[in-house]
Amino acid sequence: MLDSILNVFATAWYANGAIRVFGDGLLISAFVLAVFFLFDRLLRAQLSTQSQHLVILGGFVSVLLGLVMSQTQLSSTGGAGGAPALVTLIVRPGTIEAAGFDWSALLLTLYLVPVLLLLSRLLVGVWQLHRVRAASTSVEDDRILDEVARLQRTLQIARKVSVHTSARVQSPVSFGALRPLVLLPTEALHWPKHTLRHVLAHELSHVQRGDWLSKVFCYALASVLWLNPLCWRLLKRLDASAESACDMQAAALEDDNTNYASTLLEVARCCQQHGTPPLLFAQTMLESSSLETRIVHLLEGKIMQTNELKKERRNVLFTLALLSSILILTLASTQIVTAQPTADDVKNRGEILPLETVVPYYPRTAADQKIEGWAHVSFTVGVDGLVVADSVKVVEAEPMDVFNNSAIAAAKQFRFTPHSPNGVPVVLPDVQYVFRYKLSAD
């Protein structure tokens, strides 16, 4: 019963190219993100928040590269590896399994509906940001504009950064890639100079680091791979580390963690009266769930000098590049080891050809979806020349599990001449055959 369920599921999984891509993505993301999650947990205490953000972002980039590599390899090999060099029987769709429910369409629908909803949420969020930007008011205050110009020079931001105010935001936010915008609450115009300096330094640090683009990219990838819980766990870590990294960078500009932490509390009190919901997909300075942790980190953390940060960043980038390369090469080169009979086994048993064979049926879903492949089976031939039913197993197959039931059902009905090396029939184990399922002649 379980084998039948797995066969139906696997046939549906491989029957559609889109499902195969999503399946590969889930497996790759589970493996790669688990490694980066462990890396982040082990080294979190030793790394600055800037480097922690790089580690998490590197995990998402590695998932994307791994998926691209897997699909490139699949296309270059025609979607299936070569069958083992054993006795091969060609199976063509003359006998097709009875029509059944189209499980592939159901699986694809069940998977794609959440993907479309999550990506729609992203589009709605970006559209909302566009509307808020259009309705906001450009800042004309010289003290704010002068401070922005000074910070841009300090942070080496070449792009033009606009600063607007809006009654629709409850906290300073920033967003945009090509035309970055710092959006302040309306009452920010009356904040003390040191408060504005800290707030602008924080938001311009987001712009300098490209955090908004990283946030959108990682959310889009997590939406496509929504079944992997590590995507969402690391997405939260990405946001928290980005905010904390900008806190540390803004505090470093003034070389005073304590005053900057006081500013965070002061701005939080000023913005508590807002009843407006936070904007989706904007870098929000006062994210309530992480504010306490960020303040503790500021008060306990050490301000690293620019040279120290650059050195650590170079080391982390080198380590991430090396780790990503190893993971991607491992994924690209991993193959299932085939259990092959040795030369002595073949020599001792002679040529094992069946007296009677049964043509396996070609699974209808596989035939309809133009899936070709092979199944390598192993079984034991009894003293009567019949296949021992319980001994039939699939050693290897491509695609995995699609043709298993068909190959097993056919192999169980084979009949051989009893193996009698000394004139006495004996049990012959580990007889191996390959059923190659092809839709057209070579």
Q: Kindly report how far apart the N and C termini lie.
A: 36 Å
Number of strands: 11
Average pLDDT taken over every residue: 80
CATH topology of the domain at 114-293: Zincin-like
Strand order of the largest sheet: 2-3-5-4-6
CATH-defined superfamily of the domain at 114-293: Metalloproteases ("zincins"), catalytic domain
The dominant shape is elongated
Radius of gyration: 31 Å
CATH architecture descriptor name of the domain at 114-293: 2-Layer Sandwich
Largest sheet: 5 strands, mixed
Oligomer status: single chain
What helical percentage do the residues reach?
A: 55-70%
CATH class of the domain at 114-293: Alpha Beta
Q: What structural class do helix, strand and pairing data support?
A: alpha+beta
Low-confidence stretches: 76-85, 335-351
Percent of sequence in beta strands? 5-15%
Order of helical and strand elements: HHHEHEHEEEHHHHEHHHEHEEHEE
